[in-house]
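Revision sheet: structure tokens.
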Amino acid sequence: MAAPTPGRPVRGSSTGRPLMAALDLFGRRWTLRIVWELNGGPQGFRPLQQRCDGMSSSVLRQRLVELTEAGVVEQNGEGRYTLTPLGHEAQTALEPLAGWADRWAATLPGQD
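Predicted:
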């Protein structure tokens, strides 16, 4: 399956509106975790897999292909995966959501 990209039909949008394509891409299992983990710097395949709680190698490989096709991730000259400038922008855009999630968790009983 090809990576969701604006202008092509995606889950939830037959027109592939950019926001819907982004939601489809980042809504795929493990995708956000991969982006989050790569924010700390380039990672090889195995270390990235370990940082992602040992997800299966086939799922990691598929998500990396999708993120690469989408222009969010690239492989550097050492074969390590890294965020592109667009990937760093996505990470920055996700930070307010992470802050909100922390505040939300703090409001729930037993989440001290």
